[in-house]
Amino acid sequence: MAYPSENSARRPQRSPRLRFRDERIFYYAALGPTSIVIALVVALPIIYTVVLGFFVQNTLTRNWRFTGLANYADILTDSDFWFAFWNGVVFTVGSTVVATVFGLAIAILLDCNFRGRGPLRALVIFPYIVPSIVVAFIWKFIFSGRGILNDFLSFVGAQTISVPWLGDQRFAMMAVILISAWTWFPFAAITLLAAIQNVPDNIYEAAALDGAGPVRRFAFLTLPLLAPALMVVVLIRAIWAFRNYDMIWLLTEGGPIGATEVLPIMAYKEAFGLFRMGHASAVAVSLMVFVTLLAAVHFRVGARLRKAYDTT
After folding, report:
1. Domain of residue 292, residue span
2. What's the CATH code of the domain at 100?
3. What is the dihedral of CA 261, 144, 137, 188, to 10 degrees?
4. pLDDT tens track for 243-255
5. For the chain, how many structural domains are there in total?
6. pLDDT tens, 111-128?
7. Of 12, 20, 68, 72, which residue is least crowded by CB atoms under 10 Å?
């Protein structure tokens, strides 16, 4: 009778492995339902919108007529389209700059040691988590003709008449930019605070020993080291701001007289106000192209900054 040798008894038992073909079938079976859901929820509406841009369709008559690139030619020669596009650029640049600068200031403040810093850090995130509808109602009350802002300005003697800030063409865009920046600055503050805290303290200690003051340390150390985080904050905010719809609609609905109308609001009015689905789809596709270009810039610039940061 043959007995197993000592080496064979000590040899570990290998668990049976699936063949490559079986593993591939398993991966397809596991990812299949998710891929189908993503295709139905994301890809299918995008494809439908792109196709609809080549047709003229009225939601009342339900008649379809193929027109090729006529819808795109119409919007590209429409002054209202470019006015809405320019409004979007102004809103994006203004809200991004204000939110980033204010967020950087708050991040530097929260990096200092003082009593109550912990509760203040938790409080800073509050504007970011408040629902948009609540933010809109609060700020509409503040900026109304009889709101808190006008009462304060009258109390200090800065003005004698009430100004409807959101109803005046001169001030509506400025008010919307400030409100949108107020809702976004917590994201910038928390992100930049994390980046600041990752900077080694010995760098600042060495700069202080060389005689660099707080201003020079901020200009020549903090800002260059925060460049990757700043770029991420700026580009993400720019992408979200350019496609912003809910906050502007809740505050002004694109008014007064189109002063705050941006491309998403124009697409909504074309679709559900004028019932021109083809034009609305062309506006939406154009908006998607602009946002895609911003996203491409984000990934390209971010990759270069990460490479430069890793090299240094």
Report:
1. 70-311
2. 1.10.3720.10
3. 70
4. 889 899 999 999 8
5. 1
6. 888 787 788 888 888 888
7. 12
